[in-house]
Amino acid sequence: MGVEICVEGLTKSFGHQVVWQDVSLTLPAGEVSVMLGPSGTGKSVFLKTLVGLLKPDRGSVTIAGRDITRLREHELYEVRKLFGVLFQDGALFGSMNLYDNIAFPLREHTRKSESEIRRIVLEKMDLVGLLGAERKLPGEISGGMRKRAGLARALVLDPEIILFDEPDSGLDPVRVAYLNQLIVDLNAQIDATFLIVTHDIASARQVPDNIGLLFRRELVVFGPREKLLTSDEPVVRQFLNGRMEGPIGMAEEKDAAQVEQELARLGDVDRKARHAGNDMTPRLLPGPGITRPPRWEAIARREAELHRKEAADA
């Protein structure tokens, strides 16, 4: 079972450049959360701060009852064992085959025998659909396979928290769809706490339980998926619909009067679309034979109630 992550008043800057400030949210245990935001809003910095690779200027990150911002290095090392991380490029060693890449954390951080390591590695490779590719080098396989190998490596220490740093980067839409299904299936099987940083709107609509959005050096909003998909917040509407009208510009800043004019031109199109239920993209479900965690039933009831409310308001 995953663990809850409670973030309070988190602020991070590099010199005089504030990345984000006063960020507060709770990542529920065992749920999938997505963090969105325009390029340059510090999403990857946020991930690195959660795992203790970067120290914030202010605020706390409480994991399993411990504020990691106040821990000494050897204490932080113990907390990091709760984490698995999938980096953008998979971060595989080019000179090692997939088996040795995935076995690396076990050899580095445990005293397990080679037979036990082999059992675990093959189990995780099977989980991500890579059995039979043990002897292949990273340079011999596709980007999608490299992502899955990186994910298998992130899983070998049985983490309770898994961080995904733009897992869809460099993948075509079909491979992104397969990866999204894999993430949903894994969460149902291991029930760890997942946090995904992504720009992919389709993924954000289909995969998570919760969605957050970073913009203009702050966390604009964080909450249940269905709440965000029906939000009236202009920056949320703009980002989720991938359009030019709204607060986000090429340089991330727009004049307030210009934003007001753009939103006025949209009229009530957005409102009608939401009331018609067009924004509630169906959630991805675990594949055949995979049991859904009990919390999924509560989420399904919550979404159904929202649909009924939207229909009544229309």
UniProtKB/TrEMBL annotation:
Residues 270-294 are annotated as: Disordered. CDD domains: ABC_Org_Solvent_Resistant. Residues 5-241 form the ABC transporter domain. One of its GO terms (molecular function) is ATP hydrolysis activity. SMART domains: AAA (SM00382). Keywords: ATP-binding, Nucleotide-binding, Transport. InterPro entries: AAA+_ATPase, ABC_transporter-like_ATP-bd, ABC_transporter-like_CS, P-loop_NTPase. This is ABC transporter ATP-binding protein.
